[in-house]
Design goal:
75 residues, alpha+beta, Wheat Germ Agglutinin (Isolectin 2), domain 1, two-stranded antiparallel ribbon, 5 strands, 15% helix, Kazal_dom, Kazal-like domain-containing protein, Kazal_dom_sf
Length: 75
């Protein structure tokens, strides 16, 4: 479950936050459960990309898969 750090970075889970704290010799605490308010800090993704956090860093990436859709769409 994602957590939002006091530094407004969303971590994949509490373990990842602790891991980053150890590597960076910091003591960032959990601000709240779930992702930070706007998902990825100031990061905005275009072209239907989604924001993900890896090792405390935000990046935009294309979705890995599509949800099964029963209704065709005209593009």
């Amino acid at each position: 479950n994602p957590v939002c750090g006091e530094n407004d970075i969303t971590y994949e889970n509490e373990c990842k936050l602790r891991q980053e704290n150890c590597h960076r010799e910091e003591n960032v605490k959990i601000k709240k459960e779930g992702s930070c308010a706007d998902g990825c800090g100031q990061q905005r993704c275009e072209f239907y990309a989604v924001c993900e956090t890896v090792n405390g860093r935000h990046r935009c990436k294309c979705p890995d898969s599509c949800v099964q859709v029963d209704s065709p769409v005209c593009g």
